[in-house]
Amino acid sequence: MHEMTVAESLLTIISDEAAKNNAKPVGAKISCGTLNPINDEALSFAFEAISKDTPCEGMTLKIDHKPLQGLCKKCDSKFNIEFSSPKCLKCGSEDFKLMPDAPLLLEEIVFQTD
Ligand SMILES: [Zn+2]
């Protein structure tokens, strides 16, 4: 299961940061690209399972799915690709280059502040 692998690496990184900050993590924000097939529920479920009895237990994960972007070959502008009608939002050209999909990224860890 893809999400389990992701959950394991997240847990490692968050545990390290928590130890460094000497704080209890309560939430994290993750972002990933459109082509990265992360299922929010499956990831939360996997994370919950492996973080049991660790300082990360009970954390809330928020996953931000970034749209796929294109670079217009005519006017050089970057735009979010609509799968129903992929074209440049500025000039309407359908001649564009696909940008690399956004990587899976741990953007933010929220620590308890009391
Ligand atoms: Zn354009």
Give the SSE map:
Blueprint: H1 2-21, E1 25-33, H2 40-50, E2 60-66, E3 69-72, E4 78-80, E5 96-98, E6 105-111
Parallel strand pairs: 1-2
Antiparallel strand pairs: 1-6, 3-4, 3-5
This protein binds zinc ion (ZN).
Give the overall average pLDDT. Answer: 94
Form type = elongated
**Spans of 5+ residues with little confidence (pLDDT < 50)?**
none
- Using only C-alpha atoms, the radius of gyration works out to 18 Å
Query: SSE order in H/E notation?
Result: HEHEEEEE
Percentage of residues assigned to helices = 25-40%
**How many strands, what sense, and barrel or not for the largest sheet?**
3 strands, mixed
Portion in beta strands: 25-35%
Structural class, by secondary structure, is alpha+beta
The count of strands amounts to: 6
Q: Which strands sit side by side, in order, in the main sheet? A: 2-1-6
